[in-house]
Amino acid sequence: MKKVLLAVLTVGMLSLTSCGGEAKKGTDAAEDATDKTVDAAEDAADKTVDAADAVKDAADKTADAVSPKVAKGKELFAAKGCVACHKEQDKLVGPALKDIAKVYAEKKGNMVKFLKEEADAIVDPAQFAIMKANLAATKVLPGEDLDAITSYIRSIK
Ligand code: HEC
Description:
Blueprint: H1 2-64, H2 68-79, H3 97-106, H4 111-115, H5 128-138, H6 143-155
The structure holds heme C.
Heme C is lined by residues 80-82, 84-86, 93-95, 100, 111, 114-115, 121-124, 127-128, 130-131, 134, 137-138, 149, 153.
């Protein structure tokens, strides 16, 4: 009788142990699954951030990209020696291009006419004598070059 009881107890304990083992396996599997889900979510979040960065980069590039006309104007502005007296952001001998652009926008001035010597100076008329010498060179430029140069100046903010 005692032997039978012992056997029953042994079997019972064995099955309990194995049951506990199963439960532990289950917990491990659940933890693994949770880890994997967290990892996947983090990966996905990283990818979303990367994608957002890529979109932002593309948008920045579009904003920076200048039209061919403005690019040509900038080249002409350098080639014609205008850069000796004008910088984009700061006053040099002549006003900064951003200030010329601002005045022409506010007063709705005609910059092409100014460069053809057909309109008066509106930015700094007191200093016009210094600028006047350059109009000999600008007034003989083809219309499309004047259009490019003035588009470039007006594009500076
Ligand atoms: C020797 C220096 C000098 C050079 C070179 C020069 N500028 Fe100027 N520029 C000035 C000065 C000074 C003024 C301010 C006087 C004025 O407003 O006319 C001025 C003014 C201007 C203005 C504003 C005119 C206004 O309505 O008052 C424009 C536009 C301009 N320059 C374009 C050019 C271009 C384009 C070139 C090259 C072809 C050029 N400048 C070369 C000195 C220079």
